[in-house]
Design a protein that fits this description.
This protein is of the alpha/beta class. The protein has two domains: 7-249 and 454-475, Aldehyde Dehydrogenase, Chain A, domain 1, CATH 3.40.605.10; 253-435, Aldehyde Dehydrogenase, Chain A, domain 2, CATH 3.40.309. The chain is built from 15 helices and 24 strands. Strands 14-17-18-13-12-20-21 form a seven-stranded mixed beta sheet, sandwiched between helices. A six-stranded mixed beta sheet has the order 9-8-7-10-11-23, sandwiched between helices. Helix 9 (263-275) links the parallel strand 12 (253-257) and strand 13. The longest helix has 23 residues, at 95-117. Bound molecules: NADPH dihydro-nicotinamide-adenine-dinucleotide phosphate.
Length: 483
């Protein structure tokens, strides 16, 4: 495919009237390509095509949808190495993580291939004699999907797969920072035998194309992952249009490190959760709430582990931490380092820009100690390889700190105490709880989402995804009496 023809609308690849460049964040001299930007007319074309395509797709039946999703999933898994290479080059996560992402994207499709067949309804007895009732799930219709750059193939996969499984049409606006990954996934979907218009991918800036997409009354539902501010704007627009919404946004995930934990495991899990994916994960552990009895030793060991991480080119063997996504993100991260120090936190290690052989956005993983929960670095999502240690004198104090946040996506505890683990599971305000595990790292077949400003609307993933991607229909039938 000609890279300029990077918009997939109504069953065909299209040029735009302008293009953007995608460059490798590990090496700015590595130009990945030029990618078309959709015009308003092209977006309208995609929306009209999707409305037409959706009816034929629903009519095609579950076996057809199952087969298509299986094909997509199997191809993603079979080509995980090659697709992982694209993700690592464009997004900057180390190659092993990037391959894992591509494989995981395939698992979302094969899982939802199964859900196509499991889309069963209910029968109910009526309170009126001679009347029967059934409750069935039908497609919501046209789903707009808006995804971020940090999981450029997996996040759209966990939205597109259920949308298609339940008979909907999709107009997907990926992040402009990762267009090559979006094109790679779209090529696999576009090769399937599906009605024109069922799947459309339009690249363009969020503020223009994204905004026009969410404002369209032709859209029945919007699934968004990204920042809180953009999410709030989308929610306001959607509510004015009565459009169904599902949003995954920011986080400030707490991880409690208790005095009875396996300290070595706690350091491994905290390092993994804080710095995996260069800290650019909504599930990253950004607040480490550590019991005072083990605080100093934990901080020393964590700093040693952070300093030992190999930061470098995402495609280089042995790299554990790739670059951050962009110059803007790096500048924002360094500004948070300054802000943390200005507010009185102690920078134990990292927090500086690193030079490597290639010109990339490398940053040394940072650990702040001596932080208070009300500091900016503990309140705002940084999306950076920066983690903050907060000291607590007891489990109860640690739990109270964990819950003192506008967010509530994931929360973890490191403890050998079953009663503490159990109490934490029941009382922490979060959508996902991890006991003796990193806060990041979730399965593909169970619900994912959070509370407060982290999420809004029905959960994503697993069989619960049906709540968002379908609408219920209740039918009453007067059975009558045979002649
Ligand atoms: P944004 O929320 O700006 O972008 C997410 C997606 O929304 C992108 O596809 C973007 O398009 C699109 N978008 C932007 N504005 C609009 C709009 N008005 N209407 C519709 N769509 C829109 O996040 P960023 O990528 O800019 O990242 C900024 C910060 O957001 C990060 O530093 C991090 O804190 C947070 N974030 C959180 C994520 C999470 O999973 N919790 C994921 C990503 C970001 P485009 O990129 O083309 O402008």
């Amino acid at each position: 495919m000609n890279q300029n023809q990077s918009l997939y609308i109504d069953g065909c690849w299209h040029d735009g009237t302008s293009t953007i460049e995608s460059r490798n964040p590990s090496d700015r001299s590595d130009l990945i390509g030029h990618f078309a930007q959709a015009t308003a007319d092209q977006l309208d074309h995609a929306l009209d095509a999707a409305r037409r395509g959706q009816e034929s797709w629903w009519a095609a039946g579950v076996q057809k949808r199952h087969n298509v999703l299986m094909e997509i999933g199997n191809e993603l898994m079979a080509r995980a190495d090659e697709l992982g290479h694209i993700i690592a080059r464009e997004e900057g996560k180390p190659l092993a993580e990037a391959k894992g992402e591509a494989y995981r994207a395939g698992q979302f499709f094969t899982y939802f291939a199964g859900e196509c067949l499991r889309n069963q309804g209910d029968l109910a007895e009526s309170v009126r004699l001679g009347v029967e009732i059934d409750v069935r799930r039908e497609p919501i219709g046209l789903v707009a999907i808006i995804s971020p750059w940090n999981f450029p193939i997996a996040t759209p996969a966990w939205k597109i797969a259920p949308a298609l499984a339940f008979g909907n049409a999709v107009v997907w606006k990926p992040a402009n920072l990762t267009p090559a990954s979006a094109v790679a996934l779209s090529e696999i979907i576009a090769r399937q035998d599906i009605p024109a218009g069922v799947f459309n991918m339009i690249l363009g800036s969020g503020r223009e194309v994204g905004q026009r997409l969410v404002e369209s009354p032709k859209v029945d539902a919007i699934s968004f992952t990204g920042s809180v501010d953009v999410g709030r704007g989308i929610a306001a627009t959607a509510i004015a249009n009565m459009t169904k919404i599902q949003m995954e946004m920011g986080s400030k995930n707490p991880m409690l490190i208790m005095d009875d934990c396996d300290l070595e495991l706690a350091v491994v899990n905290a390092t993994n959760a804080a710095f995996g994916g260069t800290g650019q994960k909504c599930t990253a552990a950004s607040r480490l709430i550590v019991h005072s009895a083990i605080h100093d030793e934990f901080v020393d060991r964590l700093a040693a582990a952070a300093k030992a991480l190999k930061v470098g080119h995402a495609l280089e063997a042995g790299t554990q931490i790739g670059p951050v996504i962009s110059e803007g993100q790096l500048a924002q991260n360094l500004a948070y380092i300054d802000k943390g120090r200005a507010e009185g936190a102690e920078l134990v290690c990292g927090g500086t820009r690193l030079q490597r052989e290639t010109d990339g956005y490398f940053m040394a993983p940072a650990v702040f100690a001596g932080t208070r929960n009300n500091m900016t670095i503990n309140s705002e999502e940084m999306f950076a390889p920066i983690t903050c240690v907060i000291k607590a004198d007891s489990y109860s104090e640690a739990l109270a700190i964990a819950n003192d946040s506008q967010f509530g996506l994931t929360a973890g505890i490191m403890t050998r105490s079953l009663s503490r683990a159990n109490h934490f599971r029941s009382n922490v305000r979060a959508g996902c709880v991890m006991v003796n595990l990193p806060t990041a790292g979730t399965d593909y077949h169970v619900p994912f989402g959070g509370r407060g400003a982290s999420s809004y609307g029905p959960r994503e993933q697993g069989r619960y995804a049906a709540e968002f991607y379908t609408t219920l229909k209740t039918t009453y039938i007067a059975a009558g009496t045979p002649e």
